[in-house]
Amino acid sequence: MTAVAEPGRRTVRVGRVSWVVHRRELIVVGALVAVVVGVGAFALTQGEYRIPLDKLLAAFTGTGSESVLRIVLEWRLPRVVIAVIGGIALGLSGAIFQSITRNPLGSPDIIGFNSGAFTGALIVTLVVGGNYAATVSGALIGGLATALVVYLLAWSRGVQGFRLIVIGIAISAVLNAFNDYLQLRADLNAAIAAASWGMGSLADLGWQDVVPVTIAIAVLVPLLALMSRRLGMLEFGDDIASALGIPVERTRLLLLVIGVALTATVTAVAGPIVFVALAAPQLARRLTRSAGITLVPSAALGAALLLVSDVVAQRIIAPAALPVGAVTVTLGGIYLIALLITQAGKR
């Protein structure tokens, strides 16, 4: 293993494999990891039963009381873990779509893939009837089917980013209307549960909910890592990427599947959570001052955003709690307005 230092970055080589480590990216990611650890520890201490820091540490060493162990390890920790892993998945999904479309509005919640995943989950839950695994499968199939429809409708001698976004917004509107129809036709209790879940919530999640998200991350992130160089090339435009030997449409389609799978898995577990995938890549880009979208900072910022939003949702009107989606959609609206003003100012 060798390392070649350059101003502001370090090139690390292990045999024939090499990658560039940017100093500022390391600092930003390190700071975001510290935020996640700090906010996660705070979340574990808060609630109807507050736990001092010494008892929290005792719970992780297995020396705490049975009640503290149950509260921390069985009730609160799964929610924190899902917030972190789900935020990573959404941050990476947003980075994929914004790179593919070369547009800061290129996000699964804007393009409609979240709505498609929610539609698939609703059909399984309210119409077909199925267990947890069937709901996860339904969300994944719904998201992929929506992606296929949007991709085919956006095709015109290739797929252009802006065309993909506009068609995705239209498909999202249709799916949202269909989702409302499904809930109105459903049994009252099921409809109320579906509407609450549709806001995006991490409440009442346990270790059984951590498993599918963790499996998705474990499978999809290595695949994305293998495709990361091609993803970066797509940001230069189809012509340049093609000239560099990248099979553009096949690469775009594979990345589309990975991005949809990431967001669909989170949607199946927690419902559609907006804003995180939209904002994380752009905020990470500004913090790292990078020329393009960066995957690791986007993932770290996604985890921080979702975890902080969930803590705010739990504490802002305590002892009552809001769905995390209510917080993220509010922040997303503010961010989207600021983004549109910024983009308009550049013209």
Write the layout of secondary structure elements.
Blueprint: E1 2-6, E2 9-14, E3 17-22, H1 23-45, H2 53-61, H3 66-101, H4 108-111, H5 113-128, H6 132-154, H7 161-185, H8 188-198, H9 207-234, H10 238-243, H11 248-270, H12 276-288, H13 295-315, H14 324-345
Helix pairs in contact: 1-3, 1-13, 2-3, 3-9, 3-11, 3-12, 3-13, 5-6, 5-7, 5-8, 5-11, 6-7, 6-11, 7-8, 9-11, 12-13, 13-14
Give, in spatial order, the strands making up the sheet with the most strands: 1-2-3
Strand composition percent: under 5%
As for the number of domains, it is 1
Report, as a whole number of angstroms, the end-to-end distance: 47 Å
Low-confidence stretches: 1-6
Structural class: mainly alpha
Overall pLDDT confidence: 85
**CATH topology category name:** ABC transporter involved in vitamin B12 uptake, BtuC
Q: Give the overall form.
A: globular
Entry keywords:
three-stranded antiparallel β-sheet, mainly alpha, 14 helices, ABC transporter involved in vitamin B12 uptake, BtuC, disordered N terminus, 347 residues
Task: Please provide a written account of the structure.
This protein is mostly helical and 347 residues long. It has one domain (23-345): ABC transporter involved in vitamin B12 uptake, BtuC. The protein has 14 helices and three strands. The chain has helices at residues 23-45, 53-61, 66-101, 108-111, 113-128, 132-154, 161-185, 188-198, 207-234, 238-243, 248-270, 276-288, 295-315, 324-345; strands spanning 2-6, 9-14, 17-22. The chain has a three-stranded antiparallel beta sheet. Helix 3 crosses helix 12, helix 6 packs antiparallel against helix 11 and helix 12 (276-288) crosses helix 13. The termini are far apart. Mean pLDDT is 85; it is low at 1-6. Belongs to the binding-protein-dependent transport system permease family. FecCD subfamily. It is a multi-pass membrane protein. The chain crosses the membrane at residues 26-44, 79-98, 110-128, 134-154, 161-178, 205-226, 253-278, 290-308, 320-341. Keywords: Cell membrane, Membrane, Transmembrane, Transmembrane helix, Transport. It is found in: Cell membrane.
